[in-house]
Write a structure and sequence with these properties.
Layout lengths: L16 H27 L3 H29 L3 H8 L4 H34 L6 H4 L4 H17 L3 H26 L5 H9 L9 H15 L5 H6 L8 H29 L9 H13 L3 H34 L4 H21 L7 E2 L2 E2 H8 L2 H18 L2 H8 L4 H26 L1
Antiparallel strand pairs: 1-2
């Protein structure tokens, strides 16, 4: 069912394996690790969720990450082309679905990234307002425009620009994370934070929802199911050791997620905040603590600058998935594809930005941004990742997977084929347990 993968296209490449690692880490780090992971831990019982998350990461997340990166390298093309090469009948359709999913997610992710930029700017001026105050005017719209234009300006220079930005942002991001962790661990709430994060109520593992959310978080951590890995994998140099590179990215991403928890929860417990506050934790709850802390204004600058850099690098990756598909499927020039993508983001992102403004744009009784998030949230990303893995592993011969991963990775190719072929049936089980 799969077309031959023997005629790779001439294509731009990352300059080296470390360049791919930097770029892929920057692409995946995002708010999924810094913002989503801590509040998922807070909402789902601390240590029990972390244990489930690590199991899902090892059993499903990492093998599917290897599969997506390897297949992208094998096809040397955008997400649609890669799935089309894997399966003639359904590949183009499913690849188009993945790109459309990324379009939907990126359109509102640019708005959230705008919030992080706005909060970082406010922190620098020592004037952090509450989220309600921040969105009482048109800040969401203005900062959304600013982030979108900045992304377009970088992406128009190609893969090389993404690589340079990633190499610049990642060391700064890691230094800020380490600095914030050191500061947070000096707070009185560190003991309660430690107990909350490390204490595990094993009875919670009997709750299927924890496993489902943990699987979704594992996919968000590694950017599985959204075309990021396939697209970035298509630019990998021939000599890159994919298992080694992906292992470094996985360890780094997971470490950043845990460190984010050690930044946030000592603050939460020191100032008597609710660890289960959910998505409001970063933008609504923590600013209240910063106001009370000695030197809190400087901590806020580091915290929201960190959030902005992580979110911005993920925006670049999401937009690159869309640009590559438009450029190659419609045979547009690079510049034209970028301008079309930028215009598409403006059209689709404005309603999400206006949903947190005086306009209060809603859809089905909820802010428009939340409506789109429900479409592109955990359910859709998990489904996309599992179905995509099934298409690859049921259509592409194992020898091709071995070929792209390298002779030294037969252990992983065996795991990949097992996970990929079981993935559609596992998705069916999830639907039965969760929705029936």
């Amino acid at each position: 069912m799969s077309q031959a993968f023997d005629t790779p296209d001439t294509r731009a490449q990352w300059s080296s394996e470390p360049a791919f690692v930097f770029s892929m880490t920057a692409a995946a780090v995002g708010l999924g690790n810094l913002w989503r992971f801590p509040y998922m831990v807070g909402e789902n019982g601390g240590g029990a969720f972390i244990l489930a998350y690590l199991i899902c990461l090892l059993v499903f997340g990492f093998p599917i990450m290897l599969l997506e990166v390897g297949t992208g390298r094998l096809a040397t093309g955008n997400t649609v082309k890669t799935f089309r090469k894997a399966h003639r009948k359904f590949g183009s359709l499913f690849g188009s679905f993945v790109v459309l999913l990324t379009v939907a997610i990126t359109s509102y992710y640019l708005v959230i990234t705008g919030w992080t930029l706005g909060y970082a700017v406010s922190a620098v001026s020592f004037d952090i307002s509450s989220f309600d105050e921040f969105t009482s005017g048109y800040n969401s719209l203005y900062y959304f425009f600013a982030v979108t234009f900045l992304c377009v300006a970088i992406l128009i220079r190609g893969v090389e620009a993404i690589e340079k930005v990633s190499k610049f942002l990642m060391p700064i991001l890691l230094l800020i994370i380490i600095g914030l962790v050191i500061i947070s661990l000096q707070l009185p709430g560190r003991k309660e934070a430690s107990e909350f994060i490390l204490a595990t109520d094993f009875s919670r593992l009997a709750d299927f929802n924890i496993w489902f959310f943990a699987l979704g978080q594992a996919f968000f951590t590694l950017a599985v199911g959204q075309g990021y890995l396939i697209t970035y994998g298509s630019y990998i140099p021939e000599k890159t050791n994919i298992p080694r590179a992906c292992m470094i990215v996985t360890i780094t991403e997971t470490s950043i997620a845990f460190l984010a928890g050690w930044i946030i929860f000592p603050i939460v417990f020191t100032y008597g905040l609710d660890p289960g506050e959910g998505s409001a934790l970063a933008f609504n709850t923590l600013p209240l603590a910063f106001e009370q802390m000695t030197g809190g204004a400087y901590l806020a600058i580091g915290f929201f600058s960190l959030f902005f850099m992580a979110a911005f690098s993920s925006c670049l990756a999401g937009l690159k998935v869309i640009i590559a598909a438009i450029e190659e499927e419609f045979r547009f020039s690079h510049t034209r594809a970028i301008l079309i993508t930028g215009g598409l983001m403006i059209v689709l992102g404005v309603p999400s930005a206006l949903s947190f403004s005086p306009v209060s744009l809603e859809m089905m009784g909820m802010p428009f941004l939340d409506f789109v998030d429900q479409f592109g949230g955990t359910n859709t990303v998990v489904s996309s990742g599992l179905i995509g893995a099934g298409i690859f592993c049921w259509s592409i011969p194992r020898k091709k997977i071995d070929q792209t991963l390298g002779a030294q990775s037969r252990f992983w190719s065996g795991k990949i084929m097992w996970v990929g072929r079981a993935a559609p049936f596992f998705l069916l089980l999830i639907v039965l347990l969760r929705f029936v």
